[in-house]
Specification:
CATH topology of the largest domain: TIM Barrel
Pfam family, one: Radical_SAM
Keywords: 4Fe-4S, Chaperone, Cytoplasm, Heme, Iron, Iron-sulfur, Metal-binding, S-adenosyl-L-methionine
Family: Belongs to the anaerobic coproporphyrinogen-III oxidase family. HemW subfamily.
CATH superfamily of the largest domain: Aldolase class I
Distance between the termini: 33 Å
CATH architecture of the largest domain: Alpha-Beta Barrel
Radius of gyration: 22 Å
Number of strands: 14
Number of domains: 2
Organism: Georgenia subflava
Order of helices and strands: EHHEHEHEHHEHEHHEEHEEEHEHEHHEHH
GO biological process, one term: porphyrin-containing compound biosynthetic process
Helix content: 25-40%
């Protein structure tokens, strides 16, 4: 069961944004997230807003979904082209990144994914060198599908590997054969796509040897990017119920720390450097700002506070300090769009203090770190004691801290939440 949507103010039926959203927009990228809420089987640990196709009726199922999503893209085009926003300084922006997530986006025919991408392209345009990613399960694509995705304009595919150990995959309710990964990666490479693989550590019953096997299998694929996330057992999921009944043990924090340290060791040795606490990219090429060229630029736009429009049921969006979220159920989502109404269920306008808190919470997780007082190269008086304590505890690097920039050490990455609390209390 997906988590409940947050509370917020009631958004207008036409989705119009306040003029304040235009402030500073010329300095922010625009991205688009396309949510495909369908899975063949719902995994026991997952609390994303996903459905099996059999649960849904006409207008909301996979067969009609691309048309429904295109309606929201059309609505978004009108909202962002509001003359009031243009007069307040919001330029027409090409889309810098597109990310198709889910669910399992590749449950849709490639032709539908291509139509959705074409909708983004024809509505806003794609920036030169735009990053266009789709998630995929290893058993949901073949060589022809990957070649067709590349021909449609996708540049990157993120495979849900999760583990190389069949028993671990079974606990997670993952249905793919791990032996298929080398094939799908080879096919993606042949199509000219960048390749990312997603791993999960801390599954109940997973040993340290199991995790090493997964890491070794992942680096043997020679991916451009690896995401390694600690399993979080969410209330309302099948796994949450299994843990509550004592059928599965709750993941252990110390075990998770050991597995993160092992990931750092194995991935770094394979030439993959961390650029965000849970994300590693090939370190052999960097952009002008020092970010690995194969980092997920779409996810970086979230962590750096840029603008994005989230299309789909339950999708979240953010433009200029205005955040909103769509109705969760695909049937309600489709109905509202058929009526010409925004599918937004609620929204909030972020106050300056909240935006600063989120800047620190998200930015501190990046290898580039976060400036405590942007543009000054100094530590604000109110944070001097906290910074000194964090240096003393070995949680942040000494030299950047002297210049007012917080950069996590390896130990700091394990305790990133504690660093944020120290800087914001």
């Amino acid at each position: 069961m997906a988590p409940a949507l947050p509370d917020g103010e009631t958004p207008p039926d036409d989705g119009v944004l306040p003029v304040s959203a235009a402030a500073g927009s010329a300095e922010r990228d625009l991205g688009v997230y396309l949510h495909v809420p369908f899975c063949r089987v719902r995994c026991g640990y997952c609390d994303f807003n996903t459905y099996t196709n059999a649960e849904l009726g006409g207008g909301a199922n996979a067969d009609s979904y691309a048309d429904t999503a295109l309606r929201e893209i059309e609505l978004a085009a009108g909202v962002l082209a509001d003359p009031r926003l243009a007069a307040a300084g919001m330029p027409a922006r090409d889309v810098a990144t597109v990310f198709v997530g889910g669910g399992t986006p590749t449950m849709l025919p490639v032709a539908d994914l291509a139509r959705m991408l074409d909708g983004v392209r024809s509505t806003w345009g794609l920036a030169d060198g735009a990053e266009v990613t789709t998630e995929a399960n290893p058993d949901s694509v073949d060589a022809a599908a990957l070649e067709a995705l590349a021909e449609a304009g996708f540049t990157r595919v993120s495979f849900g590997m999760q583990s190389a150990v069949p028993e671990v995959l079974a606990t997670l309710d993952r249905t793919h054969d791990p032996a298929r990964l080398p094939d799908v990666v080879r096919w993606a490479r042949a199509a000219g796509l960048d390749v990312s693989v997603d791993l999960i550590y801390g599954t109940p019953g997973e040993s340290l040897a199991d995790w090493r096997r997964s890491l070794d299998s992942a680096v043997a694929l020679e991916p451009d990017h690896v995401s390694a996330y600690a399993l979080v057992v969410e209330p309302g999921t099948k796994m949450g119920a299994q843990v509550r009944r004592g059928e599965l043990p709750l993941p252990d924090d110390d075990d998770a720390a050991l597995k993160y340290e092992l990931a750092e060791e194995v991935l770094t040795a394979a030439g993959l450097g961390w650029y965000e606490v849970s994300n590693f990219a090939r370190a052999d090429a960097q952009d002008q700002g020092g970010t690995p060229r194969h980092a997920s630029r779409h996810n970086l736009s979230y962590w750096r506070g840029h603008d994005w429009w989230g299309v789909g049921p339950g999708a979240h969006s953010h433009v200029g300090g205005v955040r909103w979220w769509n109705v969760k159920h695909p049937r309600t989502y489709a109905f509202r769009l058929e009526q010409g109404l925004s599918p937004a269920a609620g929204r909030e306008r972020l106050e300056d203090a909240t935006r600063e808190l989120e800047r620190i919470m998200l930015g501190v997780r990046l290898a580039e770190g976060i400036e405590l007082e942007p543009g000054t190269g100094r530590v604000p008086d109110r944070q001097r004691s906290a910074v000194a304590d964090l240096i003393g505890q070995g949680l942040i690097e000494f030299a950047p801290a002297r210049r007012g920039r917080v950069v996590l050490t390896l130990r700091g990455r394990l305790l990133a939440d504690a660093v944020v609390r120290a800087l914001t209390d």
